[in-house]
Amino acid sequence: MTHAIDVRGLRKRFGTNTVLDGLDLRVEPGEIFALLGPNGAGKTTTINVLTTLVRPDSGTASVAGFDVVRSPGDVRRRIALTGQAAAVDEALTARENLVMFGRLSALRRRSAGARADELLERFRLTAAARRRVATYSGGMRRRLDLALSFVAEPQVLFLDEPTTGLDTRSRRELWGVIESLPKQGTTVFLTTQYLEEADQLADRIAVLFGGRVAALGTADELKARIGGDTVELRAPDGTPVRQISTDGTVRGVRRAIDAFDAEGLEGTVTLTRPTLDDVFLALTEQDADHAPRARHDARLTETEAA
C-alpha cells in the first residue's frame, strides 16, 4: 500500500543553518498524524517541503504517491494547506468566499454554489453563511479556512498549527471538525505546539528535535517510554512526600497505600500518569546536551524563512 506521505533522509539548510537533518517519517492513508516540536524545530519547514513550497537539499519526499521535486504539480492537485493565519477575504461573506474558490478551481457557477452550500453545512457555518467574514470570531474564520481547503477535496490536508490564537471553546470546536476529516477519506498532517491537541487528535505523533524525529508512536506508546503510573503522597500543604511506581491497577494502588501506612506516613494520595508534556520535556532535555547547536540554528532558520 502506498503511503500518504513518505519521507526519507530529508535535509534542508538555509545558509549555514541546518533545519532538517535526515528526517524520516511515513504517514498512512486516512491517518491523523501530528508533528510536535519546540519553536524552530523545523515543523513549518517540513510542511513547506511536503507542499512543494520549499525544495529540499537532499533526501526524498512523496505525497499521495508523487515525488515533491519531480512531480510538484501532481502533488499540488492532491493536497490542501491551511497555514497559521486564516486566508479568507474579510470583505466577502462565507458563501461568497467559497463560491469564489470554487470558480477559481474551474467549477461551473451552479456547481460552485452547490459545493459552497455543502461545505457550509459540513463545517457548521450555514447560519452565518451570508455574514461578512469581518464579523466572524477566530474559530469561525478557521472553520471557513478549512472549508476553503475542501472545495477540491484534497487527499492530504496539511494543517500548520491550526488552533494558534483560538480560545479554548473555539479550539475544541475545531478539534471536532478535524476529527471528522478521515471519515471523508482525507489524511491529515498537522503541526502543533499544543500537546493536549496532539493527544486528542492524532493517531500517531512524531516529536521533532534537532531536525530529526526524536520519537514516534501513539500517545500511549510515547507516554510508556518514560514510565508508568505513580502513586504520590502529598503533605497537607501540598508538598510531595513519597512516590511509588505502580501498574495502575486497584491492587497496585492498594499496595502503594499499604506501603505508606507501614512507614507511618500521612497525607493525600493521588494517582499520576505520564502526559505528553512529560514525554516532550524528557525527549528534548535528553537530546539538548547532544544537539544544542541544532536547536539554536533551527530557531534562527525558521525565523529567517518565515
From TrEMBL:
Q: Membrane topology for this entry?
A: Peripheral membrane protein
Which UniProt keywords are present, listed alphabetically?
Antibiotic resistance, ATP-binding, Cell membrane, Membrane, Nucleotide-binding, Translocase, Transport
Compartment(s) of residence: Cell membrane
One Gene Ontology biological process = doxorubicin transport
The residues covered by the ABC transporter domain are 5-235
InterPro entries assigned to the protein according to its UniProt record, in alphabetical order: AAA+_ATPase, ABC_transporter-like_ATP-bd, ABC_transporter-like_CS, ABC_transporter_ATP-binding, DrrA, P-loop_NTPase
Query: How is this protein named in the record?
Result: ATP-binding cassette domain-containing protein
Q: Which organism is it from?
A: Pseudoclavibacter endophyticus
